Please model this.
Amino acid sequence: MRKRSSFGLSIALAGVALVLAWAPSTLAQQRVSAYITFEEHQAREIFKAFEQDTGVRVDWVRLSTGETVARLEAERTNPQAGIWVGGVDSGHIDAKTKGLTAPYRSPAAEAIPAKYKDKDGFWTGLYASPLTFAVNANLLKRYNLKAPATWVDLLRPEYKGHIQVANPGSSGTAYNVITTLIFLWGEEKAFDYLKQLHKNVSQYTRSGAAPGKAAALGETVIGIGYLSDQIELKVQGYPLEIIPPSEGTGYEIASISLIKNGPQPELAKKLYDWALSKRAAELYAGYFIVPFVEVPLKPGAIPIAQLKTVNQDNIWGAQNRKRLVEKWNTEVYAAR
Model:
């Protein structure tokens, strides 16, 4: 009996050893690294669903659009991530131009309209969202202010110190503000406007979502950012009025790209395909506006087709980003 027991134990231990020997290899094959430009709680929900559907785990680092492009440049010879998920399309165009990403024509992208994806297959849109003003209704009453309805309204002297917007050096959202104004009025008038707006800005944040959060928390009266971020806050019960500027507004096409020579390319493509699926779109719709797939939108979300938008040229925006950000730093921010 003892011999039989010992033999059985030996077999069991051998089996455990075999499992342990294989485990690291198996786990390594089922993990993909990503840079993401979602908010962290959004990424957790979305990637949890991906892991449930595929068995592949996503190891991710959250960066803004500008930070991601800078990280990809720094890691050009030794990429640490295989895919970039989210982030304004101008950043993905910039990454393509700099040779930091690789083309991939996902079968899941075939139904997406051409204006929402790169003609060469370097990036594809996941969702879209217009620029809007998040206004704290309680603070409006406290300071006896009228809510802004236009970009020009933001220049009112009574708004001095009551506006937050992100820094275009780190935020694709803020850079979209600059290009929106240029598409509305031309570059000279847009920069004259930004110099005047500068007098009313209390803080330039690193992240494009931060001004809306500050407005929600009562830290500022007005935050400029994307509708999708602001709607999520309003649904949570924060006292926000969300206002699209009536002159016209720009919008993001948050996109996805494969990183050139990144690790685990096949798993990265698997995540890319899944990220363009209806299953993923239903999750995005909890936070964002998805014009590519028929999914119900979050209460209060406004379809882009119902808004007055600028004639936005994202390729021009990407090509001129470095120049315009440097100009903003020199002519606007340096005046603080």
